[in-house]
Design a protein that fits this description.
Elements (H helix, E strand, L loop, with lengths): L1 E5 L3 H12 L3 E6 L12 E5 L5 H10 L5 E4 L6 H6 L1 H21 L4 E7 L10 E2 L10 H20 L2 E7 L1 E3 L20 H9 L6 E4 L11 E2 L1 E3 H13 L1 H8 L6 E6 L5 E2 H12 L5 E4 L10 E2 L2 H7 L7 H15 L1
Parallel strand pairs: 1-2, 1-4, 2-3, 4-5, 5-7, 6-15, 7-12, 8-11, 9-14
Antiparallel strand pairs: 10-13
Length: 333
């Protein structure tokens, strides 16, 4: 089996590892400068922006046996999207629209897309299922929501099938990074754990908690933090179980399926902070700040539907993600 993977950033690189580990050939597109020099067994790397449809077509000509696409080349950040909505709608909606239309014209009908938990509304108890109400609060969340709606329409009109993986909050690094022979250039993403690492390294003065007056058990936001390796493996499971996923989902799911990809564990910001401090054996400077625009009190994933449909469940704990990332940090230092 050969898969086209768009994006080789923090999430894409880890998906590439997972595909390689499972002997799935991957054609990987990204617009980073040196991607042609990347090396990973079973993977072909091309410098190419997905909006360059002529170049994408040439790559598809070279690999006319591609059966499926994982579309991950989208930008993410709630805070940045509030300040720069144009970039988020341009990349996540407009660029993706033309790209998927090209795939349709090329006869590629099985597509996995990277969506987000930010599409959900607040719900009592904070646990969301795939049928929970949707109400994105930021341009980033709305761009993902619009893309999901677009994909549903494409599936109905063009005889496509799509699995939308709603990622929660990926943290950590590839769990097997230190033992790999072939290592892609490390990219650690931008998330709570990376901010704490920067403070630990003296690159920032303090950690600012964005509000401690939320209606949660300690006043700070609740999130679902998933080890990046577990998230990557969910993509592989979606590839391997693509057809059977629709059969397992039930008769109402004929061509479009949304799945939560999270740890299934609710963690407050303060609890994350405590876990980090316990692992590093030190305290960091903390300050309470105002709520951020676009934030909600919290959500975490009910992952039973993903278990049922693609036979996936997370293997690692939050502490594993922190330990893996801290181990890399010590090597860098």
């Amino acid at each position: 089996m050969k898969v086209l993977l768009t994006g080789c950033g923090f999430i894409g690189r880890n998906i590439a590892y997972a595909l390689s580990d499972n002997n799935i050939e991957a054609v990987i597109l990204d617009n980073v400068g040196d991607i042609e020099n990347y090396s990973l067994p079973g993977c072909y790397f091309y410098k190419c922006d997905i909006t360059n449809l002529d170049e994408v077509s040439k790559i598809l000509d070279k690999h006319d046996d591609i059966e499926m696409v994982i579309h991950s080349a989208m930008i993410s950040s709630v805070a940045k999207s509030v300040k720069h909505p144009f970039e988020f709608y341009t990349q996540n909606v407009v660029g993706s629209l033309s790209f998927v239309h090209l795939l349709k014209d090329r006869g590629i009908k099985k597509i996995i897309i990277a969506s987000s938990a930010s599409v959900y509304d607040d719900v009592p108890g904070f646990m969301v299922t795939e049928k929970s109400p949707l109400k994105p609060r930021s341009p980033f969340g709305r761009s993902k929501y619009i893309f999901e709606l677009m994909m549903k329409d494409f599936c109905n009109a063009y005889d496509l099938k799509c699995i939308s993986l709603r990622y929660f909050n990926p943290v950590g690094i590839d769990h097997y990074f230190n033992t790999r022979e072939h290592k892609l250039p490390m990219k650690t993403g931008s998330n709570l754990l990376e901010i704490l690492i920067e403070i630990y390294n003296g690159e920032r003065n303090k950690f600012i908690i964005n509000g401690d007056d939320w209606f949660t058990r300690d006043g700070t936001c609740i999130r679902d933090y998933i080890h990046i390796t577990d998230l990557a493996k969910a993509n592989v499971k979606a590839v391997l179980n693509f057809d059977t996923a629709f059969e397992r989902a039930g008769s109402e799911y004929t061509n479009y399926l949304s799945l939560n990809v999270g740890s299934g564990v609710d963690v407050t910001v303060k609890e994350f902070l405590i876990a980090f401090q316990n692992i590093i054996g030190d305290k960091i400077n903390v300050e309470i700040g105002p709520r951020r625009i676009g934030d909600i009190g919290g959500s975490y994933a009910n992952i039973q539907f993903a278990k049922k449909t693609i036979d996936w469940k997370p293997e690692f704990r939050l502490e594993d993600a922190i330990i893996d990332r801290c181990a890399l940090n010590e090597q860098i230092k």
